[in-house]
Description:
The first copy, chain A, is an alpha+beta fold. Chain A has 4 domains: 5-98, Uridine Diphospho-n-acetylenolpyruvylglucosamine Reductase, domain 2 (2-Layer Sandwich); 105-223, Uridine Diphospho-n-acetylenolpyruvylglucosamine Reductase, domain 3 (2-Layer Sandwich); 225-344, 2-Layer Sandwich (Alpha-Beta Plaits), CATH 3.30.70; 350-438, Alpha-Beta Plaits (2-Layer Sandwich), CATH 3.30.70. In chain A, 37% of the residues lie in helices and 21% in strands.
Amino acid sequence: MTITAEQLVEQLQSLLGADHARSGGDLTAWEEDWRQLAKGKALAVVSPASTAEVAAVVQACLAAKESGLNVSIVPQGGNTGLVLGGTPDASGLQVVVSLKRMQAVRAFDKQNLSMTVEAGCILQNLQNLAAEQGLLFPLSLAAEGSCVIGGNLATNAGGTQVVRYGNTRDLCLGIEMVNAKGEIWNGLSGLRKNNTGYDLRHLMIGSEGTLGIITAATLKLYPQPAATTCAWLAVDTLDHAVELLALAQQQLASGLTGFEAMEQDALKLVEKHMPHMRMPIDASTGAAFILLEYSDDESEDRARARLEGLLEAAFEAGLLTDGAVAQNLDQAQKMWDIREHITLAQAAEGLHLKHDISVPSSSIPAFVRKAKEELAKVLPDARVINFGHLGDGNLHFNVQAPEGANPREFVDTCQQTAEQAIYDVVASFGGSFSAEHGVGRLKRHDLAHYKDPVALGMMRAIKGALDPLNLFNPHALLPDA
Amino acid sequence: MTITAEQLVEQLQSLLGADHARSGGDLTAWEEDWRQLAKGKALAVVSPASTAEVAAVVQACLAAKESGLNVSIVPQGGNTGLVLGGTPDASGLQVVVSLKRMQAVRAFDKQNLSMTVEAGCILQNLQNLAAEQGLLFPLSLAAEGSCVIGGNLATNAGGTQVVRYGNTRDLCLGIEMVNAKGEIWNGLSGLRKNNTGYDLRHLMIGSEGTLGIITAATLKLYPQPAATTCAWLAVDTLDHAVELLALAQQQLASGLTGFEAMEQDALKLVEKHMPHMRMPIDASTGAAFILLEYSDDESEDRARARLEGLLEAAFEAGLLTDGAVAQNLDQAQKMWDIREHITLAQAAEGLHLKHDISVPSSSIPAFVRKAKEELAKVLPDARVINFGHLGDGNLHFNVQAPEGANPREFVDTCQQTAEQAIYDVVASFGGSFSAEHGVGRLKRHDLAHYKDPVALGMMRAIKGALDPLNLFNPHALLPDA
Lengths: 481, 481
């Protein structure tokens, strides 16, 4: 006999207590993504406090689904995603499983350079925890004050330190998860080497809640650098920016911990909306600007000397037109602030289109030229706001409405046109239409269009094998067949 | 109607030419593993020259299998594996697909720090290719003169530089493969970031030829260090060795590129069988010895100064009883030679048992004590020859027959007893019974016994989904259900 939605909610409430299994009332905080792109309607929002409770929730939902109720589960972390991967649709038949109550630090192994933490730990808290022990957890991104590690893992988050430390997957030694049978797999591990079968950890990381729920992870730690310093550099072409990147990688090696690029128009937008922010170099004087971060494992003096050595070589090679070195941590922080305010300046300018793309870094200049050219053919007055993690070949190639146009109208009518123009160029360079944000519900049609069909077929086979009833996040990531 | 074995061989010969699809005659080079543990009987050994030819071979075998012939495919690289993952069984019904003719370098992108190469490229050739361009491909292991990158990827090979650069999977940006439908997936990519669905690359890497055939890969390159230097250090306990590791990681950070440990008995065996090799420090004077490699991104002088700084601090902390620093590259090479001769000395001493285990590095001392204790209970006179990649928590905890005993008899009668004693202790420390060698046909029973059953269930589901007819390497990795 079919379990009804009401019966399932009652069951979830009896498992977790009514406070932690809510249905009805104002659930906006879980039903709407933070960018307010879409508000769904959840059957319930549940907040388990342990892995066993997560498993019990999955088992209850699975039993209901097997009985005929068309229920599904949307795992949610800090709800800071950008692609609608963690919020429910409007059906009223999805159970949001929030991991935010699972915040325990289960182990901290200083000698092994690892820590085991639960999925609901806020990223910034983990950074601080490592720092208190004189160590570094290098994952760093704009949402770090509210995103949680479970979400970082489910989406394989990137951020600003990828050029040195890799993406979230590269920082994870092992995971604990609940699969679609409601079974717990304890794959937590402080091991650096373990060749005993398929790497389920890497399969789960980046699967956006469609194959299981990550409940805990063992994470890599690094020694804290002795000193970190920054420079703000003007270049007259992106070709020079890419040559500078190669030079920096050669000279600074693993000391190169950040390499962000911003085209002039992106900084002009910051100047317009945040006039109090002082540019280290007049934004009118360069086609693009680089925020370069160097971390030294020895001393402040050496950090400065090494950075200055690089800049000298870069000036000599004709790669730079101007440059400013941060004289202290405060100045370095201000440089990062400008970089991070581009997103806010874009928001202040009005609704716009975000494109989180990647190509091999060597192709960046040619890609940008071609993408602007193609975009201009179809949307001649649209404004490209281009910036991003050049060191990883990852650009936020965003598009703002023409000067004076209505932003909402522009977004509504031009989104598809812009995406197709840009993503076609991305594809022609062997690039990705989603470098670090993921696919979620927002970019499923892009996946259908741009993903290699053989890869898509294998992805579908894996989903069908591990989640045959499509219990986990059925409307995210994989396009409908 | 069933395609006969003879018909399949004819078909393969017409696809590749008789020279490249051999059946009958002496095929020992492909049928026997290099350690001569087992010699199988292949239906055919085929050597495709291109990805299209690999796909055609898979399609032919698939059609034969679908018609009722119980054929299967064993992908083979350099045939240097240690666990019988790349050689056929005795059935005469397996087609060995050797990748060794696919040796093209398809692209070398210096600016993107990547190269795209075919599966049959010999590892050492790739190291040399990178070096000629002033770059580093850091994968390094004993078999590098004959192993090929396809096999390194299929087994996620480790080696001596893992402490700094990670395992093979960490050095791979993308792969091209042929799946069990005979389809080609071109997932070659110079991208550092690409969040568009399940990470098929990481699923394939380490799957030991059971999910598909890797035909090419895009690999990460690094700047060459400016200088590399080594020290040979004596410690009186493994506890001190692990404390030294932590100190080295703190002081040298990413400059620590090697951290090998060898217990006294391992070096005594080298002294016995290779009396011409000169130990940097009398092996009688320490319980264990560390070969520490440091790479500097600036200069030879700084390399020496940083290494000496570390040793000073380690002596002060009472971690070292003696130490020798290589005065030149030749001395450094001699230190590595001793380390690498342990395996040969073991072979010279006679047949023995190999255990390639890992635990968190912080647990190494307690693990070694406990494992020796448990082994002594069941095999009181067996000799432990313990050495390995301590920086990765990976030990080759090998066992030699008692002094004077018949080695073959010892191996035949005591293998299971030794394995169980040691692997049970490994499991109690959350460790792995196969850190870097893989599972193959040799350790399937260990996988059945020690792998978490939930993980094993998910692995089986994935295998069933991607290779429903069990076409690829059916007797390797996954235990029979």
